[in-house]
Write a structure and sequence with these properties.
By secondary structure, the chain is mainly beta. The protein contains 1 helix and 13 strands; from the N terminus they run H-E-E-E-E-E-E-E-E-E-E-E-E-E.
């Protein structure tokens, strides 16, 4: 009973802060070795379950909100190398990823905040933001998926796919 009350309170609090979060989740990981260095994204993948996910009336995630880019625990980027994500210098370490769902262009937010504190977005913890390229996948993606893909040499792409959106950003190992 207490757990149900706490869960309901957290859902209302997240919604009131503009941090809409899907409920169903599956632990997942995307990893690649690029230029001899390891880049890992750990997240909890949400499933659409027939819901409208992005934008519009009744959608799970509304425009102009900051999304924790997953369900449950914060989505975490681990790197043992300095990276240049878009134009953002990212030192080796652990970061939390958020996405600003701006209709004019999504932005990947790399946050210095870690652990339980990263359940809620705090702008002052931004390492920085980079523009994402968005497209529509050929088929709708039921379960949210991150991928880290080698693009040749010391470059790669970080991609997020869910429902009718594929959003990506290039990166380079420094």
């Amino acid at each position: 009973m207490n757990r149900a009350i706490i869960s309901a309170f957290m859902a209302v609090a997240a919604g009131s802060l503009g941090l809409a979060q899907p409920i169903s989740k599956t632990p997942a990981e995307a990893e690649a070795t690029i230029g001899g260095k390891t880049i890992v994204v750990k997240y909890q993948a949400a499933s659409a379950h027939g819901r409208t996910i992005f934008g519009g009336a009744g959608a799970l995630l509304q425009p102009n909100t900051v999304w924790r880019a997953g369900a449950g625990s914060p989505t975490t980027l681990y790197t043992n190398a300095a990276l240049k994500i878009g134009g953002l210098a990212v030192p080796p370490g652990r970061y939390t990823l958020f996405v600003l769902l701006d209709p004019q262009g999504w932005q990947l937010i790399v946050s210095k905040e870690k652990g339980a504190a990263a359940q809620v977005y705090h702008k002052e913890q931004d390492l920085g933001r980079v523009a994402m390229t968005t497209a529509h996948p050929s088929v709708s993606v039921e379960t949210m998926k991150f991928s880290v893909n080698a693009a040749g040499g010391k470059t790669g792409t970080l991609q997020l796919e869910w429902a009718d959106v594929a959003a990506s950003v290039p990166f380079a190992v420094q």
